[in-house]
Amino acid sequence: MERDGMEGNNLLHFLDTPSAHYRLNCDGFEAENDADDRSDASDPANARELLECLLNQPANKFCADCGIPDPKWAALPFGAFICIKCSGTHRSLGVHISKVISVNLDEWTDEEVHCLAESGGNSVVNTRYEAFLPENKKIKQDCSTEERNDFIRKKYQFQQFVCDPQFSCPLPLNKKQAQDKHQQHNSNKHGFGHAFRNSWRKKDSDSKGLKKMSDVGMVEFVGLIKVNIVKGTDLAVRDVMSSDPYVMINLGHQSMKTKVIKNTLNPIWNERLMLSIPDPIPPLKLQVFDKDTFSSDDRMGEADVDIRPLIAATKEHENSTITELTELYRWSASEDSNGVLAKDSVISIANGKVKQDITLKLQNVERGELEIEIECVPLSQ
After folding, report:
1. Reported pTM
2. Staple partner for 168: which of 45, 70, 193, 271, CB 3.0–4.6 Å?
3. Does 234 share its domain with 208?
4. Which residues, by range, are in coiled-coil regions (predicted)?
5. Are residues 201 and 295 both part of a single domain?
6. Confidence label for 300 from pLDDT (cuts 50, 70 and 90)
């Protein structure tokens, strides 16, 4: 492999965890920037220029997983450019495995782009994670949702194609895994790689555990939703006199959370999170927590948001030429039978983007409001 020299022929460096590899590259780049005193390190123009250069590399012009042309998403921990269909499955793996960023919709930092460049792009990713992929088992562009999710999970989460299935796979074990393996040694004489041996030819009854884990990803996605967590107001006290709040959002099996704001009841996040929209469309769930160090985090309220009206409005005005801010729909807080709206909620459009501003009364808590802005992005974008 052309990249083996770069990492000292140490495959375990990549297999420890993809996120650890990503952090290591980023930390290394930041240290290099500090040492060289590069004044343009955080220039968005430089980041965009390098990103476009990476996209123009031959291997990066096609999705690393299914081969669809012109991929517009990146799985940062691996350094792969992927299509929107595969990005939905990557998101369902969780950010601890695959962090998905949009080439066009997200703002890239110079550090993130250089981390992506250091990973080598689709050519190196597939050389590494498909090294022992059985012949004719690479998914096609028109594969089913089940085939897509099964392949991506095997490739990245279980890393089944990294090593020869005829031998034990040299994946590093954490302490708990090592203890479990030692306890089971007498009853299980097969190597670690035996569990994955000939997995493509296993009967359905032999792969129930794998199928159960991959069921999470076996859904169709109708678009993306960008959630801007703006701020909280008059939140509940969970420490002595204040709280350390953060917000967790859930959509189906996906979840993301904001950073923790220390020692405040009126936090300002202005943090944008993005999730895939599954079909059927579930409510967007928001939960506020107080971060604790030595005990479980305390609940500070929750709220559910029906995102179907926003999705319908987005589809209706997908090709709109409206440039001025225009109100499309309004929900009155005084007429809200569920008592969730603290203020009137408005769906508006400007420059082709349909957004909804919502101020929520947090439920199951003594007090607190949460202000958010949501935007639907159709698959066509």
Report:
1. 0.60
2. 193
3. no
4. none
5. no
6. very high
Residues 233, 361, single domain; the answer is yes
Strand order in the sheet with 284-290: 254-257, 245-251, 284-290, 298-305
> Distance (Å, rounded) from C-alpha 242 to C-alpha 52?
45
Range of the domain at 174: 164-217
Interhelix angle for 44-55 vs 110-119, to 10°?
Answer: 20
Residue 35 above 60 pLDDT?
Answer: no
Task: For residues 172 and 254, state if they share a domain.
Answer: no
If asked whether residues 242 and 373 sit together in one domain, one would say yes
* Greatest distance between any 2 Cα atoms in the chain: 72
Whether residues 78 and 189 share a domain: the answer is: no
Cα angle at 82 between 76 and 85, to 5 degrees?
120
CATH number for the domain harbouring residue 71: 1.10.220.150
Do residues 147 and 34 both lie within one domain?
A: yes
Q: What does the CA dihedral 197, 203, 206, 208 come to, rounded to 10 degrees?
A: 120
CA atoms within 13 A on the CB side of 367: 8
Q: Which pair of structure tokens corresponds to residue 265?
A: 């009841």
Percentage of residues in the chain having pLDDT higher than 90: 45
Where does residue 321 rank: exposed (0-12), middle (13-18), buried (19+ CB within 10 A)? exposed
The angle that helices 110-119 and 18-36 make with each other, rounded to 10 degrees, is 120
**Residue 78: CA count within 13 A, CB half-sphere:** 30
Q: pLDDT value at position 219?
A: 63
Do 267 and 261 form a contact (C-beta atoms < 8 A)?
A: yes
- Give the integer Cα–Cα distance in Å for 10 and 59: 24
Same domain as 116, residue 19: yes
